[in-house]
Specification:
The chain is an alpha+beta fold. The protein folds into four domains: about 200 residues, no CATH class; about 130 residues, no CATH class; about 140 residues, Lipocalin (Beta Barrel); about 70 residues. It is built from 19 helices and 36 strands. The strands form seven sheets. A 16-stranded antiparallel sheet has the order 4-5-3-2-1-6-7-8-17-16-14-9-10-11-13-12, with helices on both faces. Strands 19-20-21-22 form a four-stranded antiparallel sheet, with no helix packed on it. A four-stranded antiparallel sheet has the order 23-24-25-26, with no helix packed on it. It is globular. The N terminus is likely disordered.
């Protein structure tokens, strides 16, 4: 099982929900559901037309009715229409009239170009030859589609062969119901929804060839063996996003990779708490018992005749490193493993993170040699671009290139976690319990990756989702459900609003986070909670929710708590601000000598701490109550090169660091707009006017031509510095 194999597995779910997403599926029971050999009668009552679908269908889309089919296939904010190669665009744009409530089904078939077939039950319309039917047939004809009336059904397709096949199947009494596994997947609870998608893993060759870029089409054999069928029902569909619930059908044999993870159990899912909000992509699995997992993985490899090769690799590792991957994993008691892509210094980088179940010391991890260990035990998808360096950061093992690990280990790297961002957007997308696998992809982080992943047709469909949106996360969660597996798939669109430019000064409230704040305890390596109670005391709570200490304090802290290694000795202190001063307190609740540091101006929000030297040469950014941004060393002295930042409107929050093309900038968001300032402050480089002002909630990206952002008129523009 190689990395590209799982990448394709992951992306398969994407096609079906209208966005790019990636998935690792996890099973929680050893046995297959015994659903009998006949599809559930409820399914057949709801979707009678399935009997007209030929047995070679690769995808079957069962709609509530023809009106719903037009809504879903014609939805410009999703890519469902791409499943039919957009051939039905003209049909879906029609007013369906008397045909609106007619039963309808669409299938996509095994052939080089995956031809679609739409079947509509229109007995009365056919008998009366209604205007709605004539209009529909005319629209199909003008779209280059073929039509045929067979009894009380209207068949529409790009392929005469597929239409003939459907008619022949009907005449002979055959259908997709006879395909291996379909009756069983149609008997699951998922199949009882109004709008259901079925995907046959047997036809992955053509499926991948039609919807994916060529370089991602090498994993068809693994996908064929992953499961027999996948069923997905649409539970929510609106401009705000798409939600689906899914079920997988596969056997209990060890040759199904999903069964490898079934014996491991699950543990608490914490990955979103230890990755930055800007993370592009995550695959995460939890493991309750690493020993049980390894035993099941060996059985899987044995069923694929790969166990001998695996044991040879372990033997070579033992000889080179003194221990092999299995011994390493068991010694750590690994409870969670994740691979993530994120941008560091303007480049997309890949690293591994693993949550150990056993207590570790940073000095014991820093020299650890474990290159290739994670991929050996968990599959090649868990591979970093470079695994030469390992460190203990934020309580997790971080493996990757030296510069990546160093950046990730910085105390201020997790200024905003992914968990915080999802929470701020009101998105409850991380399973609180029974979560076995979690996959996250931020669709808009790097739109150029769409072309590298999908066929031009699918990439175009995915881009539709990004229009007018500032944040589009796609999440797949695998959750223990009824003795089996349930998939929760969510694509959310946080929109960039459109409207008139607000009057300057209308909104004067500064955004100040209230906490509690996640901090690292350097003694235990665990993530603790730093908070201020109702009496203003500063408190620290450990990873088990137990208060460690509380220190009296008289002022409200200004919304940020940052980790610093003030003495450059590996011991962490916590920096925060109140009044006009910055305070530093250690993990035992003792204020550090030399603090508080006076800045001379009242602080509205901050600090945000940076170490651009890599040698603990910390600087702190603060937003003051006079609507200016100050940039200081930790002693409260302004950085000599700093020219200051201010704005006509209220600055709502601390500036955001923007990096790219080897340069650094500050993004400042006010009550009316977003602006880009030089790294040293001064006058803004980018400042729009009128409806061409950049919206306060717009994402700003560096391109070869300048800065790209969405303005008040809803258009995305590229701004050149100084213009």
């Amino acid at each position: 099982m190689n990395r590209k194999t799982l990448t394709i597995l992951i992306a398969t779910a994407v096609i079906l929900i209208g966005g790019i997403t990636f998935a690792v599926m996890k099973l929680y029971s050893d046995s297959r559901n015994d659903a009998g050999n006949a599809a559930d009668s409820r399914f057949l009552e709801t979707h009678k037309l399935v009997k007209a679908v030929p047995s070679d269908a690769a995808i079957i889309f069962c709609f509530k009715n023809f009106g719903r089919a037009c809504e879903i296939l014609g939805d410009s904010l999703a890519v469902f229409g791409e499943l039919a190669s957009n051939k039905f665009d003209r049909i879906t744009s029609l007013r369906s009239g008397s045909l609106k409530k007619s039963p309808a089904i669409m299938s996509v078939h095994y052939s080089k170009d995956m031809p679609p077939l739409m079947i509509i039950e229109a007995g009365k319309a056919i008998a009366d030859t209604t205007q709605d039917l004539r209009t529909l047939i005319a629209a199909a004809d003008s779209s280059g589609l073929l039509t045929r009336i067979n009894g009380d059904m209207l068949l529409i397709s790009t392929s005469e062969t597929v239409i003939n096949s459907s008619v022949r199947h009907l005449e002979e009494g055959h259908s997709i119901l006879e395909a291996k596994g379909f009756a069983e997947i149609a008997s699951t609870g998922t199949a009882n929804g109004d709008d259901v998608i079925f995907l046959s893993n047997a036809y992955m060759d053509n499926f991948l060839g039609t919807y994916f870029a060529k370089k991602h089409r090498k994993s068809r054999n693994f996908l064929k063996e992953l499961a027999e069928w996948t069923a997905l029902t649409i539970t929510k569909r609106s401009d705000a996003g798409v939600s689906m619930h899914g079920t997988l059908l596969y056997g209990s044999e060890p040759s199904y990779y999903l069964n490898v993870l079934s014996h491991a159990g699950s543990s608490e899912m914490k990955i979103a708490e230890v990755v930055p909000s800007s993370t592009d992509f995550i695959i995460d699995i939890t493991i309750g018992n690493i020993t049980s997992y390894i035993k099941a993985y060996r059985n899987y490899l044995d069923s694929k005749s790969s166990l001998d090769r695996y044991e040879a690799i372990l033997k070579a590792q033992k000889k080179e490193f003194g221990q092999n991957a299995e011994e390493w994993a068991e010694s750590l008691g690994i409870n969670e493993v994740a691979v993530l892509n994120l941008k560091m210094n303007g480049k997309l980088r890949q690293i591994l993170t693993l949550r150990p179940g056993k207590k570790l010391k940073a000095e014991n991890v820093s020299g650890m040699k474990c290159a290739g260990f994670a991929s050996s035990v968990f599959g090649n998808v868990f591979t970093a671009e470079d695994e030469s360096t390992c460190a203990l950061a934020h309580g997790w093992l971080v493996i990757g290139a030296a510069d990546c690990v160093a950046e990730y280990s910085k105390t201020n790297f997790l200024r905003e976690t992914l968990a915080s961002r999802l929470d701020a957007e009101g998105l409850d997308r991380v399973p609180q319990k029974n979560g076995g696998a979690w996959v996250y992809y931020s669709l808009g982080n790097d739109p150029e990756l769409l072309d590298a992943t999908f066929s031009p047709m699918m990439a175009r469909g995915c881009r539709n989702i990004l229009k007018g949106a500032s944040y589009v996360p796609v999440v797949i969660s695998a959750i223990a459900e009824g003795g089996g597996i349930g998939l929760e798939i969510n694509l959310d669109r946080i929109e960039v609003g459109k409207g008139s430019v607000p009057a300057a000064g209308k909104d004067t409230t500064v955004t100040v986070p209230e906490g509690p704040f996640k901090v690292r305890n350097c003694a235990t390596g665990k993530i603790n909670t730093f908070y201020q109670n109702s009496h203003l005391s500063i408190c620290l709570r450990d990873e088990n929710g137990k208060d460690v200490w509380g220190v009296p304090f008289k002022s409200k802290i200004r919304g940020y708590v940052q980790e610093v290694d003030y003495y450059n000795n590996g011991k962490i202190q916590y920096l925060f601000a109140a009044g006009s001063q910055m305070y530093l307190i250690d993990r035992l609740g003792r204020f550090v000598s030399g603090f508080p540091a006076e800045t001379g101006k009242k602080i509205a929000a901050g600090p945000a701490v940076y170490d651009f030297t890599g040698a603990k040469g910390y600087t702190a950014m603060l937003l003051h109550t006079d609507n200016t941004v100050g940039y200081y060393d930790l002693h409260g002295k302004q950085v000599p090169s700093w020219k200051g930042i201010t704005a006509d409107e209220t600055i709502k929050s601390l500036p955001e660091l923007l990096e790219g093309n080897g340069k650094r900038y500050w993004v400042v968001r006010t009550s009316a707009q977003s602006m880009v300032f030089p790294f040293s402050g001064g006058e803004p480089l980018i400042k729009g006017e009128g409806n061409k002002m950049i919206r306060p909630d717009s994402k700003i990206e560096i391109t070869d031509k300048g800065f790209s952002a969405v303005c008040y008129d809803g258009k995305e523009r590229t701004f050149k510095p100084g213009k």
